[in-house]
């Protein structure tokens, strides 16, 4: 289960967010993006010491400031069910790029058993460079 798929499934569910500076935010997840930036609604913010509280209708939290997220177990179960349903249609199919041939040998790159080929791996269209023979 990937963290972003878990977050996307958690939309409209309550969660607790603790930041690296110690503040905590309790609220309902509205949205998230690929950088784990999140929007919460009906938020209660608690100070680092736990002695001050603020109620906010909504807030935005930058993903790089998040220490951890606490998500209800029901959301985690929903993600597990989604992955099972998504994987039902898949079957074990062998082959594809870079696979093995019928004799279970790695796929070769030509008639001569590898990269070199007839030209000895010289590459290019021009013939290999030949040193001129010394004059006698």
Automatic annotation (TrEMBL):
Composition bias, kind Gly residues: at what positions? 111-124
Q: Which InterPro entries does the annotation name?
A: Lsm4 (IPR034101), LSm4/Sm_D1/D3 (IPR027141), LSM_dom_sf (IPR010920), Sm (IPR047575), Sm_dom_euk/arc (IPR001163)
One of the record's GO molecular function terms = RNA binding
Top-rank taxon of the source lineage equals Eukaryota
- Basic and acidic residues: which segments have biased composition? 84-95
Outline the extent of the Sm domain. 2-75
Region annotation (Disordered) ranges: 84-136
Where's it mainly located?
Answer: nucleus
User: Which UniProt key words apply to this protein?
Assistant: mRNA processing, mRNA splicing, Nucleus, Ribonucleoprotein, RNA-binding, Spliceosome
Give the signal peptide, or none. none
GO terms classed as biological process: mRNA splicing, via spliceosome; nuclear-transcribed mRNA catabolic process
Q: Where in the cell is it found?
A: Nucleus
Regions of compositional bias (Low complexity) in chain numbering:
100-110
GO cellular component assignments: Lsm2-8 complex; spliceosomal complex
Record family assignment: Belongs to the snRNP Sm proteins family.
Tell me how this protein assembles. LSm subunits form a heteromer with a doughnut shape.
Annotated function:
Binds specifically to the 3'-terminal U-tract of U6 snRNA.
Query: What name is this protein filed under?
Result: U6 snRNA-associated Sm-like protein LSm4
The protein's organism comes out as Exocentrus adspersus
